[in-house]
Write a structure and sequence with these properties.
Spore Coat Polysaccharide Biosynthesis Protein SpsA, Chain A; two-stranded antiparallel sheet
Length: 220
């Protein structure tokens, strides 16, 4: 059984509103990625991790095409992932996605799952194209870093359930699931993500996402 975990437990402090249920083209932001994940035939059910004492996300999932459960998350992403793994007992594999990336496309999901089925662990990512430079505490430019073979991580990411449980047991503070899987000795295959699969973090990001929808640059 493959469970798609949608992480929607963030505090949204920089967005200025609860971004998981923020209106995005007439739909809650979380529903964009949830609908796309539910359309993937290999996904058996969804599990949405929401903020404690906040149940607005569950109301946003009415009419979803696949069975969907809900579970409270924690203070950090790692806390929420450990909670998700407790709630997903019985799954053979998990496909983890951040609700804050509303524009994930079906092709990216399929590429991640294809690589997972072949290699045992996979994550969407993009090779860096920009020049990368260190900065000091006062934001003065420092040394330029080599960008060859450097990738920016995205979600979704897919793993065997047992591997993630083991990984988070070893590295409780892992900032993404790939780091937890690597702690468990699992090699993670990186596959091409998509530039539109960006993370909505700030109020500016949310405004940009709304502008993309308004002008038809992204559709569902």
């Amino acid at each position: 059984m493959l469970v798609a975990i949608v992480l929607a437990a963030g505090a949204s402090t920089r967005a200025g509103e609860d971004k998981a249920v923020a209106d995005l083209g007439g739909r809650p932001l979380v529903r964009w990625s949830a609908d796309t994940l539910a359309a993937e035939p290999r996904v058996d059910r969804l599990l949405v991790i929401e903020r404690k004492s906040a149940h607005a996300v569950s109301g946003a999932m009415q009419g979803l095409a696949k069975p969907c459960g809900f579970w409270p998350g924690g203070e950090t992403r790692a806390d929420s992932m450990r909670a998700a793994l407790r709630a997903a007992v019985g799954a053979d594999a998990v496909l983890v996605h951040d609700a804050a990336r509303p524009f994930v496309d079906r092709a990216t999901i399929a590429r991640v799952l294809d690589a997972f089925e072949r290699d045992g662990a996979a994550a969407a990512a993009l090779p860096l194209a920009d020049t990368i430079r260190r900065a000091d505490a006062e934001a003065w430019a420092g040394e330029q870093l080599e960008r060859d073979a450097v990738w920016a991580m995205q979600t979704p990411q897919a793993f065997r359930y047992a591997d993630l449980v083991k990984g988070y047991g070893i590295r409780a503070d892992a900032t993404d699931c790939a780091a937890a899987a690597q702690a468990a000795g699992v090699r993670v295959r990186l596959v091409a993500g998509h530039p539109a699969n960006f993370k909505v973090t700030s109020a500016e990001d949310l405004a940009f996402a709304r502008s993309l929808v308004a002008r038809g640059a992204v559709t569902r």
